[in-house]
Structures are given as structure tokens and as C-alpha cells.
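Predicting holo structure, nicotinamide-adenine-dinucleotide bound.
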Amino acid sequence: MATLSGKTAIVTGAGSGIGRQSAQALACAGANVVVADLDAEAGKTTAALIEAGGGHASVVRTDVTDAADVEAMVAHAVATYGRLDLAHNNAGILGGSAVLTEVDDDDWRRVIEVNLTSVYLCLKHEIRAMLAAGGGGSIVNTASYSGLVGLPFASAYVASKHGVVGLTKAAAVEYGRKGIRVNAVCPGTVRTAMMEERIAENPKMEKALLDVSPMRRLAEAAEIGDAVVWLCSDAASFVNGHALPVDGGATIQ
Ligand code: NAD
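Done. C-alpha cells:
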């Protein structure tokens, strides 16, 4: 069992889905968790779940596309718990469904901003805080299996997630010598609000997703949270710059 006792973690997009599960899993492993989300009420629910399980959590409403908010989120973690050791940069959106020639330009910009620019802003301020405390730390960025392969009707999303994988590797190369590991988790399709919404719009989609899944099922958010805890922990102490598929084998076919 990974132990993160005495560590402080930030989780973005922690009000729902994968972020909520990783926040709970990090707290179960002993970390104090800063629950960051645009939706403060959803964040409070996650924090209440953590506290009901005996963990420690603090909520900070954060728009991860806003540099000042991201800086304040990191400052909140340091002010509340004394230091920052771990981060799961996870907030993201799917964007519209269209072939590339029909993509709305504003939708493209929004997806890149929320999914990719946000990870740059989070890494910048989280790594600064880790360096200020003498170095050392572990950061996990949520990419996607679509950060490793192409998928139709989602060019902005696919490009943003390939960008997250690239940014992860760039940060890992720059800060590995300071003892800061930066990795990405690449989930397959996960049963969360994001996917339920898309499946509700197109009922044939669930069968299509199951047909291409070697394990013939979608992931549960907790399965991604467990991988995040492992990447954060010393059990992964020499894993750096890796993009870990947690996709039931979707990217091996
Ligand atoms: P979700 O919609 O359940 O949760 C996303 C959370 O992010 C929400 O709580 C939302 O309020 C928050 N958020 C959105 N924009 C934000 C912003 N600007 N600032 C702060 N918080 C913001 O989605 P999920 O499925 O849990 O997705 C989490 C991450 O996992 C995303 O990066 C997504 O791209 C990625 N992912 C999801 C799947 C999947 O199948 N669900 C697969 C691969 C990768």
C-alpha cells in the first residue's frame, strides 16, 4: 500500500469524476488534499467525502485557465499545509464533436486553453513552490489515450492531450535533476459525467466504445485514481516523463 503520509497534494478538477476519485485515493494514502475546481460546491462535496473517510482536505475555487487563480491555488496549499509535494493536474473538457473542417474556432481555443495551457500554468506554479522548498515532488498530468493515438471528431481534444504528453516530457527532463518527477496518466474511456453526457447525446456511442475495448468495458474513475497514487508514491521513484496508459489495452491494437 502506497503511503503518502505527511505529503500535501493538489488535485484540479477534483469536483467530479477522475479528479474526485484521485483526491479520495490520495487522501486514503495519507496525503492532505487541496481540492481545486471551477465548481466550488462540487469541490466541497469531494472534501466532505474525504473528511468522512478520515482524511484531510481543503477546497479552493480555481479556474485553471486563469494564471492568478492557479498561483493562488498553489499559495493556498503552501499556506494551509506548509508545503507542496504532489499534484494531479486533471481538469479538462471534451469540446464539441465535429470533423476538423467543421471545428468551431472558439471551441478549438477553449479546449486548448482548458486542457493544455492550464497544465502549463499548473506546472509552472507547482514546480516553483517545490523548488522554493528545496526540490523534490511528484506531479501527474491527466492526458488521455487520445494523447497517444488519433481519434475522429475530436481534433482539438486529441491535439490538447498530445500536447499534455509533450509538456510532461519537457518538464520531466528539466526538473528530474531537482528530484521532481512529472508523469502523465492516459485513461481510456472512463464512466464519468463527461462521457455519460456524450453517450446520452449519441446512444450508439457506448456500444461502439465497448466494441473497440479489448476488455469490453469502460474504466471506473477509481482505476485511474489508483494509478495516480502509484505515480505519486515512492513505489514509482524512478518513473519520470512516462505517459502511462490506463486504458484496458485500447492503445495496443
Ligand atoms: P468530469 O467532467 O467528470 O470532471 C471534470 C472536472 O473539471 C469538473 O469538476 C469541472 O468542474 C472541472 N473543470 C472544468 N473546467 C475547469 C476549469 N477551467 N478550472 C477548474 N476546473 C475545471 O470529467 P472527467 O471524465 O473526470 O475528466 C477529468 C480529466 O480526465 C479530463 O482532463 C479529461 O480530459 C480526462 N479524461 C477523461 C476520460 C473519460 O473517458 N472520462 C478519458 C481520458 C481522459
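The two ends are 31 Å apart (CA to CA).
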